[in-house]
Write a structure and sequence with these properties.
Elements (H helix, E strand, L loop, with lengths): L1 H18 L6 H20 L4 H17 L1
Length: 67
């Protein structure tokens, strides 16, 4: 009986911990900024075609809608 109680407490603790991680921290925001900068540099060196540009716009729209 005690194992079931500890198991339920463990599951509840993990669900609360994971639920609290919806807000981005400063390190994650800085990493995303570096990713965008890297993408911009890559695009300047090797420009994308129209299909790639459309795909990136869709990706950014989906990211904005889900985050």
């Amino acid at each position: 009986m005690h194992k079931a109680t500890y198991g339920m407490a463990l599951v509840l603790g993990f669900s609360l911990a994971l639920g609290g991680c919806s807000k981005k921290g400063p390190a994650e925001r800085a990493g995303e900024s570096l990713d965008r900068t890297g993408d911009k540099i890559h695009d300047a060196v090797t420009p994308d075609g129209p299909g790639e540009k459309a795909g990136k716009k869709i990706d950014h729209a989906v990211d904005k809608a889900t985050h």
